[in-house]
# Entry
Amino acid sequence: MEQPWWRDAVIYQVYVRSFADGNGDGVGDLAGVRSRLGYLRDLGVDALWFTPWYESPLADGGYDVADYRAIEPTFGTLAEAEALITEALEVGIKTIIDIVPNHVSDQHPWFVAAIDDGPTSGMRERFWFRPGRGADGSEPPNGWMSIFGDAAWTRTKNPDGTKGDWYLHLFAPAQPDLNWDDDAVQAEHEAVIRFWFDRGAAGIRIDSAALAIKDPELPDVGGADDEHPYVDREEIHDLYRSWRTIADGYDPPRALIGELWLEDAERFARYLRPDELHGAFNFDFLCCAWEANALRACIDTTLRIHAPVGAPPSWVLSNHDVTRVVTRYGRADTTFSFAAKHGLVPTDLELGERRARAAALLAAALPGTLYVYQGEELGLPEVEDLPPEHIHDPMYFQSGGTDPGRDGCRVPLPWSGTVAPFGFGPDGSTPWLPQPAGWADRTVAAEIADDTSMLTLYRSVIELRRERLHGATFAWLPSPADVLSFSRGDVACTVNLSSQPVEPPPGVILVASLPLADGLIPPDGAVWIEISQPNDQGGPR
Ligand code: NOJ
# Structure
């Protein structure tokens, strides 16, 4: 039986604001995406995941939704979104939209009413309003901290100007948290999901998927209760079961993908049980060091936890929240963690690019879903010298500038030409974040013309993956400790993480991340080889 598309799809993440600017206002938009569908078709992707494109003050890049049924006016209109979904399908590409259950914008009509109507407003039931602690209520209701830094509570002003209750926001103050115990919150999200499924969306990506449900007592973190007051609470599984029923009610069924930052791999896998989400992002892989034992352990754990629930693993190297992969792999510490993100550290971009090329072959060869974040296929580095006056990310501001924030991986894409805006928008337009002057040889046009470019490599690998790996069984092959080698059917992938050249398995080379020297894979290189004797035995190496 043909397996559902999402089990081994290549899903390309579009950060609309930075993809392509159709109208020249410096901000990416749906017209820009529509004009580049040919590029995405030629890249060979199966689906696009759009970070939130809804009406929003963009206090957190759109993860502050004011109206789910309208498109952010700087991005376009609902009619354009509908046309985009249809046109993408015409070139064989599905659409996944982003749903943000944990919070809305402080400009969402519910929150506006909750503030404007004062402390007795029924709308306050949909959020977490609480009186402050201390004699005059001047202390936040509990000690929870925002994930962006600072307290997770902001005090309101009453309509008469006096100081009022506080409201909870696990992210920016402009993102008040919703109360999922409230029926209206549940009903509205069901309606929104149907709204987009009815318009042809093939799936949803669920933002901060483990955070939405809170212990209504709002106890401090680390209290007597076994469960965390807001991370990974048991009740959340019922919510996703109910969404699964909605998704399964469509023909073809729609897919649910979770953004789950959970340390415990077994807890993570519980979200992927057959009646819950279809898939989730593999952040262990995204955070993993460029080191053979760490990667091998990550791959083993990933495969081990997904097998019993029958869900496809996913392989993610980057997204709009993390350091671009070429930069990360060019540092002494090649792991990613939000906690350790600060300041400039020495970076060898040439080394980082070699590794990123090998990592592309590794990620694309592993069984499951592959995610590609826009610009990853061009080998764009993190832009680490954005002038502070250009920074938009609340993570930068709420950390008092100690965290550089995430704008460095969100710089508008270079498409063509030798000077900014590099075809991102019409000549003479000014992109909302400045592009580095040196991106002329990183444009799509330059890379298409270059057989050795990252883009050419991504195109080849995605095509080969479709032709050769569909449904193929994974098995480790014998290899030295600092080399990763495995087969998928009659294709072997070998990644050399050692400091010496290594011999590839015997067979015909299908693609190599770097030229081989005397038939050997150079350090930080990878190859795919057609092997004569497929090793389908499985099991650990
Ligand atoms: C995760 C998203 O990927 C990130 O960009 C956003 O800031 C937070 N969730 C809050 O919505």
Notes: The longest strand covers residues 94-99.
